[in-house]
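batch_manifest entry 22 of 60
target: Stage II sporulation protein M
source organism: Clostridium cylindrosporum DSM 605
requested by: lab member K.T.
priority: normal
notes from requester: please return tokens only, no post-processing; we will run our own comparison against the previous entry in this batch. if the run fails, retry once and flag.
--- input ---
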Amino acid sequence: MGTLLNERVTRNIKENMGIYFLILLFFSVGLAIGGFAIKSLEAGEKQELLAYMNSFFKIYSGEQVSGFSIFIQSAKNNLFSILIIWALSLTIVGVPVALIVVGFRGFILGFSVGFFIESMGLKGLVFSLVGIIPQNIVYIPCILITSALSLTFSIAVIKRKRSKGFYNQGGISIVSYSTIIGTIFLITLLGSLVEGFISPTIIKALSGYFIIG
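--- output ---
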């Protein structure tokens, strides 16, 4: 299954380089906007966010964290995002939605990492490295590939909207396409495991270090 998925994704990338470039462009723009958006925050807003995170670290250091609950919530969020992209890719709506989702994910990542680094300095960098980046190493490639696949499929649907079946230009049926998307979701569960069980353990161990003041 892994080899087959890798072959299909690799072939799809080679056949649709322009689409993957567009997806990466939207993600990069979202990432940059997220980073620059921090500059638009008022000093009072930054202090409120920082105070909230400080309280979070203080509570986190003294309470037991349910890794399973975090894992389940993360899996639900990923499933919802992928289902939305998959479902809308069967219509012409899928084209803008895929780009919007990618741009938004980039914005969230850029804003989060940028805020912590700017507000907490080295502590923020460490928190980003142990609490945000690890799971996103899995999430981001999955969401980028999912969005690119949905975009190519949406374009095929538009081109063949009067035909009886759904096939993309590479001849992949809706069943094969859905199977690939489902497999990608299963891969995101690895990120959810990291987010639910590994990152919280490290954050809890370092929570005293992250507290400011």
